Write the structure tokens for this entry.
Amino acid sequence: MNNFEYQNPTKILFGKDQIENIKNEIPKDAKILVLYGGGSIKKNGIYQQVTSALKAYDFVEFGGIPANPEYAILMEALQVIKEQNITYLLAVGGGSVIDGTKFLSSAALYEGDTPWDILTQNIRTTKGMPFGTVLTLPATGSEMNSGAVITREETQEKLAMGGPGLFPKFSVLDPTVIHSIPQRQLANGITDAFNHVLEQYMTYPIGALLQDRIAESILQTLIEVAPKILKDPTDYKAAANFMWSCTMALNGLIQKGVPTDWAVHAIGHELTALFGIDHARTLAVIAPSHYTYNFESKKEKLAQYAERVWQVTEGTLEEKAQAGIEKTEAFFKSLEIDTKLSDYTQDYQGTAQKIAQRFTERGWKGLGEHQSLTPNDVEKIVEMAY
């Protein structure tokens, strides 16, 4: 196991009727900006619960943050922060709203002229404007980590940012919020969380027995509750396990002391930037090809995964490893998630070359757990995903 440091300062308020307790977590003299997405929270009762909890506070609202948090829209919110002398942010939404709020937390205190530089120059945020979250869509784990991904439509870019100053002060996780989530988004959430675990697990053995088994338990839980959630989102027991699995998948715990990959995410982000494909679905497109292309370096963990998660007990190590890839793709398809780029666009020719060129231009010399994947490798992986 590798050396590591781990600190996660985010306070979790988990369970029914926890939204009302946000009034105990925000300073009484705070001037709050409440951020949300397309307005669904006004239809499912969450908005009413939040505003009721904030009735003693001075707050303003900013809605309309899209599914891939868009830089230009976030800059409008930043202007509100400055004009209204905002001192505290509250994200009410899924990963996109929370990621957008993290960008604003950083940008609000950024002393440079162009906040986009935070992403292009990989500026680590050590101090941001304080914020909390009310999670409405389990998927990304952004409610308990310090990372974010922001999209810029005009340049067709989707870039990551982070730093210890971007942990939420608190996050409310009420499993009942998933009652009104469309099946497509629920399937995306399951797929996103599943791939988050794989990115931290599907590398090579390093003797981190506990991290492996926690990762495997999250995968097994998602597999178990997925059909229940899709059949009946009001199943509280299934919803609670789904929500906590999504949070645990990316709160930093299972990546400590182990190598991590993240090539699937890096490539998937480019597909979203180019075609607007849902983030989770880009991961389902790239993951099977990535594991197939890197079969030799990943086969030990693939076989372990097949044995422990999918109960594949027969065959050689290579046969089990191959079964692990096949089981993964079949799981995505069971959620009605397509796994080929051509399922989403007919304009896919040349995509592999374009993504490889982008990586070259950014000076990315290596991806994957060994940092050994070149832009040429990326090109081949994407072509396999056509």
Summary: Residues 11 and 379 are 41 Å apart (CA to CA).
